Amino acid sequence: MATKIRLQRHGRKQRPFYHIVVADSRAPRDGRFIEKIGTYNPNTNPATINLDVDKATDWLLKGATPTDTAGAILSYKGAKYKKHLQVGVNKGSITQEEADKKFAQWLADKDAQVQGKKDDLAKATADKRAAALKAESEKAEAIAAKIQAKYAEEVIEESSDEAVEEGSSEATVTEETPAAEEETPATEEVTAEAEAPAEEEAPAEEEAPAEEETPAEEEAPEGDSAE
Fold this sequence. Notes:
single chain, alpha+beta, CATH 3.30.1320.10, five-stranded mixed beta sheet, 7 helices
């Protein structure tokens, strides 16, 4: 019976979760399977993989063929490398102890590599969060400074308006006072004009001698002589 190592989909929509199973190559993808050997969750970063490496290696040695995705997972977890070492042991090229030692060293290097990737991701996340907090703080400070500047402008405008109103009121009082003072010369002019004609009427009485002209009466003898 031809067997395959493949993924069986579970989980909800847009949040898939997979089981790593060994199944008959003729069975449907999500149908019956022979054995479950692990799980794969791609929703985390990095992806979470739980695999029974020994069982996966046994099935590979029995001739099970992994799909492309399942093969990448088996390679990532070291199942294919362990199969390669076990083939060497079966052929007698290396001992079991040497194979186990090499595989342990490979696992240590792989764990260090994975841990380094996790640390880099954690640092990148922390840096991103710190940058976001800094940007938010700078934005808040800019808004506060803008509000403070606007408030200062309003205070200056109110002060200038009050100064203008005070200046205009003082100017009004100052302008009204000379007007009252200027009214007194007008009264003096009226009094002067009223008194001036009274003094000028005196020469009119002196012109009375003009009535003493009697040339008309002196023409009477001419009439008498004409008669």
